[in-house]
């Protein structure tokens, strides 16, 4: 996977503006507009030297992660392969945790390695079944089939469901707005990266070049490093100790992409696959996503024939009216939605969340 020069930006206020824009127009049944706000992670200079060392010692004494220090998420794509056990050996020696985005077909061939990844405290992510772009990006159902097939394989091997998902080649230019929203609606957490090690630019990129590329990358408060442990990546294994040493010297802590992590995601780019979405195809895709999500539905769809929703730009909240009652929904920067008020007959049984830039509702 390779991607050069992709800009990362914060979502924040832009997200609320975009939600308002979406709620202020008539719902056409489409998922996002092409003007979707850009996604990304914040960039600040990390603490280094003696202050970082003191903070690290305090965290070790308390048994908690030191959130005052910058964090690096090492991620490995396309495995497992014969190189993965060597990667795991290095991580164990360095006492570092990482995240492995595995291919379903490779997981089937090396189940014991996948089990070792989980046993040693690393995170698992879905990287589709076979990495074939033509099958994944010509239409959404092709991507969906591979993601769900790999879901089943990983859950069987690991004994628990996996929600992390990384698109082969990254999302930029491969995902359109519907891909993002449908997959998020289905409960997937989509992860790209903000540091490309360059180990997949061509065959047999030497370890020295991989290390040099990482060191030349921007230091941010949260760094997600793209590496590979698939076939043909022995040089990536050789580069790994130096990369770990580099980030340790800069004061970083290491973590997995768990539910607390802020995921780096590329902005929505031009669709190089030039897909066309019919109303029937979108309805079918939304049905599939809804089945995996356990019943979450777009708020506007749920309100059809029940009531109305409008965006209050001054208060930055959605105002829902049903049968003379009003419910205020306030989106948070952490993508949660707080509800104030009640609707007739809901009995407090409604739940809300942000998916992309739309509010979704779950009726218990």
Automatic annotation (TrEMBL):
<dbReference type="Pfam" id="PF01522">
    <property type="entry name" value="Polysacc_deac_1"/>
</dbReference>
<dbReference type="GO" id="GO:0016810">
    <property type="term" value="F:hydrolase activity, acting on carbon-nitrogen (but not peptide) bonds"/>
</dbReference>
<feature type="region of interest" description="Disordered">
    <location>
        <begin position="31"/>
        <end position="50"/>
    </location>
</feature>
<feature type="domain" description="NodB homology">
    <location>
        <begin position="70"/>
        <end position="255"/>
    </location>
</feature>
<dbReference type="InterPro" id="IPR002509">
    <property type="entry name" value="NODB_dom"/>
</dbReference>
<dbReference type="InterPro" id="IPR050248">
    <property type="entry name" value="Polysacc_deacetylase_ArnD"/>
</dbReference>
<protein>
    <submittedName>
        <fullName>Peptidoglycan/xylan/chitin deacetylase (PgdA/CDA1 family)</fullName>
    </submittedName>
</protein>
<dbReference type="InterPro" id="IPR011330">
    <property type="entry name" value="Glyco_hydro/deAcase_b/a-brl"/>
</dbReference>
<feature type="compositionally biased region" description="Polar residues">
    <location>
        <begin position="31"/>
        <end position="47"/>
    </location>
</feature>
<dbReference type="GO" id="GO:0005975">
    <property type="term" value="P:carbohydrate metabolic process"/>
</dbReference>
């Amino acid at each position: 996977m390779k991607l050069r020069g992709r800009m990362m930006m914060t979502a924040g206020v832009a997200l609320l503006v975009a939600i308002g824009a979406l709620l202020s127009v008539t719902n056409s049944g489409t998922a996002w507009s092409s003007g979707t706000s850009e996604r990304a992670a914040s960039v600040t200079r990390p603490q280094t030297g003696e202050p970082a060392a003191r903070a690290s010692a305090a965290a070790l004494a308390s048994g908690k992660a030191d959130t005052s220090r910058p964090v690096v998420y090492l991620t490995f794509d396309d495995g497992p392969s014969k190189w993965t056990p060597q990667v795991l050996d290095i991580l164990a020696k360095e006492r570092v945790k990482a995240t492995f985005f595995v291919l379903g077909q490779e997981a089937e061939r090396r189940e014991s390695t996948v089990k070792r990844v989980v046993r040693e405290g690393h995170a698992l992510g879905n990287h589709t079944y076979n990495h074939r772009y033509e099958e994944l990006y010509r239409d959404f159902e092709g991507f969906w089939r591979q993601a769900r097939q790999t879901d089943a394989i990983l859950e069987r091997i690991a004994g628990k469901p996996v929600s992390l998902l990384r698109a082969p080649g990254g999302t930029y230019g491969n995902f359109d707005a519907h891909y993002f929203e449908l997959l998020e609606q289905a409960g997937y957490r989509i992860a790209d990266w903000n540091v490309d090690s360059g180990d997949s630019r061509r065959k047999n990129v030497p370890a020295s070049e991989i290390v040099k590329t990482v060191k030349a990358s921007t230091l941010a408060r949260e760094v997600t490093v793209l590496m590979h442990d698939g076939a043909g990546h022995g040089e990536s294994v050789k580069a790994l100790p130096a990369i770990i040493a580099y980030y340790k010297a800069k004061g970083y802590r290491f973590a997995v992409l768990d539910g607390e992590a802020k995921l780096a995601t590329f902005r929505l780019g031009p669709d190089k696959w030039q897909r066309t979405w019919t109303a029937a195809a979108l309805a079918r895709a939304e049905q599939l996503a809804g089945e995996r999500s356990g019943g979450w539905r777009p708020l506007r769809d749920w309100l059809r024939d029940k009531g109305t929703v409008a965006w209050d730009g001054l208060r930055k909240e959605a105002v829902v009216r049903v049968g003379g009652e009003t419910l205020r929904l306030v989106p948070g920067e952490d993508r949660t939605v707080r509800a104030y008020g009640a609707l007739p007959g809901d009995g407090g049984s409604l739940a809300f969340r942000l998916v992309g830039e739309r509010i979704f509702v779950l009726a218990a």
